[in-house]
Amino acid sequence: MQRAAAVTLVLTSVLLCSLRAAALQDLRHPPNRIAVVGAGIGGTSAAYFLRQKFGKHVQIDIFEKGEVGGRLSTVEIEGNQYEAGGSVIHPLNLHMKTFVKDLGLNPLSLNDNLVGIYNGDEFVFQESEWFLINVIKMLWHYGLNFLRMHMWVEDILDKFMRIYRYQTFDYSFSSTGSLLHAMGGNDFTTKINVTIDEAMQTAGFSERFINDIVVAAMRVNYGQGVKVNGFVGAVSLAGTSSGLWAVEGGNKAVCSGLLYASKAQMISGTVTSVQEKVRPTKSGETVRLYEINYETDKGPALDMYDIVIFATPLSRETGNVKFIGFDPPINTYTRPYYQMVATFVHGRLNPSFFGCPKPCQLSVSEILTTDEPKLFFHSIGPLSPVKPVTESGTSKASDMRVWKVFSPEPLKDEELRLLFESYDTVVVKKWLAYPIYVTPEKLPPIILHRAIYYLNSIEWAASAMEMSAISAKNIALLSYHRWFGKDGQIDQEDLVERLKSEL
Predict the structure, then answer these.
(1) Confidence of residue 454 (pLDDT cuts 50, 70, 90)
(2) Interatomic CA distance for residues 127 and 150, integer angstroms
(3) Which residue, of 6, 148, 181, 242, has the fewest CB within 10 Å?
(4) What is the DSSP string of 88-149?
(5) Are the C-beta atoms of 407 and 156 separated by less than 8 Å?
(6) Band of the pLDDT at 94, cuts 50, 70, 90?
(7) Is the Cβ–Cβ distance between 310 and 358 less than 8 Å?
(8) Bridge-partner residues for 402, per DSSP?
């Protein structure tokens, strides 16, 4: 019996060694080339994180049909640059904070403007310079709803912060739904499928508070009122916090810095199609690659890649990439993006439009709006240049400022004349800024094919610079773990408790 047991043990050891050797042989060679489509904050941060995971020998190409930065952009008015796209960063956005530090950029504190909420006839709420007066106003109009909203958002942020610990320990997620569930459990996945209106009514917030304060926050941040999903609504409310900041020189400087730090090759061109190809190797075996066809100023071209990451919206309005020969077919997600028009005006605001008869000086400088159909704009706010300027660089007329007006459609001349007493410069930027949010929300997949990933899937949960950076790191980790068969780092449950035990 003992001899038989010994023989069995030896055979088992040999079998395990053989299996281990076979497993090692099955480990794939490192990828030679990775393509990233899109050079916004998502694409450039993906290249940055991919370089960290895959090392210095992999070639990373970034395709971009426009400018580096994507929806992070600036406009020039009166000799100064102003943020035209994504403009504010939350103090708890750790990836953005790390980028700025590592790239040697400087954070820029944003001015605190006094906010008024206008309903088309009057201001339903106006901030004061005095904190105590604001507290009294809030209590008088909305009871304890402001305090409760702060606590409600803080609870969501506490759960949201878990993603940084998971990513520090190299855990990744194969779907946006599983990523959200890992952060906030059923609370986050439920919020995706109800409106922010429903979520806050269930939490006990008053209808008046939602219609005034919450609607105004949604309109300035996402342009879509309180029918957006509860998660993106919570992200929007987090943007009402204090301590918001930006990057000196413009937030797009982060994208340029990440592109340089990643040592990726920039290809100026439009990707037109992707298809899988089988190619022979020198050893007589075959390898599966992706052929990317693209158009440049010099004409059509193509290249082959091991891994492809789409960091641009796959929608009919933003691009028309064809996925050829895939079975099952890869869908291009045709749900529309919301058009937000940003109009930059160097001029003098018209107080009489807001019910302040001449001569009059508005007590607020940033004007948000409620969901009133007759209003043709969402918000008006003053801007400061992305680089501090001296007094000599400011406007000679002290009451002439640069204003940003958000609206769903381009402003007509008569509408500009209603809002401004006078103006001399107008610059218009149209953005397909973020998805049109609906509930219940069907989140696009992250994995489109064997080694094709969709970074912008996360936008359908919430669109923000930090959300794109989180998705970028998740896909860098996910693609690495799937390439080398590290399944233990993907979609693990109970990570909160697991990491507590590991620490």
Answers:
(1) very high
(2) 17
(3) 242
(4) -B-TT-HHHHHHHHHTT--EEEPP---EEEE-SSSEEEE--SSHHHHHHHHHHHHTTHHHHH
(5) no
(6) very high
(7) no
(8) 346
